[in-house]
Amino acid sequence: MLHRRILQFLLIYVLGLTSLLFIKYVLKLSDYVIPGPQGLSHTVSCVFVKYFFDVMNTLSVAVIGHIISVCLATIVGIIGRLNSWAGSFVKVAAYNIQAYPIVAVAPIIFILMGDGISSRLLIAAVICYFPLLLSFIGILSEPVRDIEHFYEVTGRMSWRLQVKIRVFENMNKLATVIVGSATLAMVGTIVAEFIAADSGIGYSIRIALYQSDLSKVLVALFLIGICTSLWLTCLERIGYLIQNHFRKG
Amino acid sequence: MCKHIQKLCFIAAVTATVIVTGACDKKTGDSGKEVTYRLKWLFNASVAGDIYADVNGFFAEQGLDVTIKPGGPERDAIKELELGRSQFGTASADQVIRAVSKGASVVVIAQLFQTNSLQWIYRPDKTRVDTPEDLRGKTIGITYGGNDEAIMRAVLAKYNIMENEVQLFSVHYDYTPFYEGKVDIWPVYRNTQGIFISEKLSEAAERTAFFDPDMAGVRFVANSVITTEQMIKEDPQTVRKFVTALLRGWQKSLDPKNEEKAVAAIHQFDKDTSIETVRKQLSVTKRFIKPSPETEIGKIDADAWKQTENIMLEQNLIPGPVNVEKILKPFYNL
Questions:
Q1: What residues in chain A have per-residue pLDDT under 70?
Q2: Is B1 contained in some domain?
Q3: Which residue in chain B is spatially nearest to A27 when comparing CA positions?
Q4: Domain's final residue, options B181, B211, B241
């Protein structure tokens, strides 16, 4: 699974890079607009190690942000599944918050929390939690009638049991949406770093853009792609193990 | 049959309307040669002359139909020139030198800012920066990767101030660290942001002052008008006409007699800034475009360009010399 995902990414990256170089040579553009192979290899030798650690820094924040957003979506999903006033309020509030563009909200977050790790975490979590929330609310609000009916008529149904039944019956869907939102966590962290952080690959990309250095951006994109592929494969593996565990249990 | 004819008539009427509307939508002055001018930043007082020339028809008088497009962080005029999307642009010296070092065929035809408007704002009641040596021990805001980083590092190097003698603070979009006093001096464009921040602090009864690297002997050239080598070779007349109209726009916009007209023209493009602030910004901009009555607007200061190149070389921002004087082509020499 890992090698296939990496191979797919490499294929897309090489295709993209080849297209850029094709445009460069057809339109006779200078290295300032699109860097040539020599400039690219020079940049790789200069920044590869630094950018690798920057991506690791970003990935670590993205992973924690993702975990926070999964927890957040679970809590909101559990409350939002209720047909009560509280459930409806939580749903509306969650949807409304998501309607604000993060680039407009981010400066407020940075004013309140500074430009440290907490702001990056919050922005990453906010960006990736919405798709999670939609699925979680959908899944947790949908009764599994065949099973739930039995517990209801015997008077043994509790909210915990109800949540467990619905989660277990929809494990595949949940795993898919969690893996999908991991990419968004990475994107969220990079956006946060781009706007106001002092570290991470988003911050390095911002500096590269200030210097109009596309070759640095291309190296950053390569590392982001590889590391995100690795992280997604890990998540898929974890999801697979959890599903197996539940099936056996 | 009748229905078919009705349908055909309807389609014909719609088509004719679209064609006529499209024709009317086209800018007047179709006879003029169409060129696009990409600015370095958004519309504000820093481009007063460019706007003035456009609004008052100076380009049209020269037989040009100029579309002025605002710039921004992701809109690089040099790239636009290479891609053929613009024929003229504004760029700072560091952008031009970087591009030339990477093989871009760009030439400078006029230098709008005779001194760089990038300065550092501070509160004189709290922080004293009377001389560059006073920077020792201060927390200095810089944008890593930006030209303010290069300028500040050049100032520190010139006055033998080691990096461990100051604290460099990474600057972002919001000014909160400066307002909160976490940073002693903060980089601003003196004629635009400098006015806003001064006004804000003045409301809080705080005085402001500016540290000017130019006064410390570090000359790092800012906004200049650029085009391509090819454009100069193939169409020098258009280049000459463009610069003539543009510089006339600057001359007129900075003339005290035309102040109200210039302020109104800028405000037409920059509606978010109050008329009063625009007036202040224009007044300060004048100091950078025409520092003395003898200064010729648009004059290219070759020594300042060479110093900018040297600063970039010393800081390894370019791999080797580009002999910047070769790309300086004042329009009157074309």
A1: 1, 249
A2: no
A3: B83
A4: B211
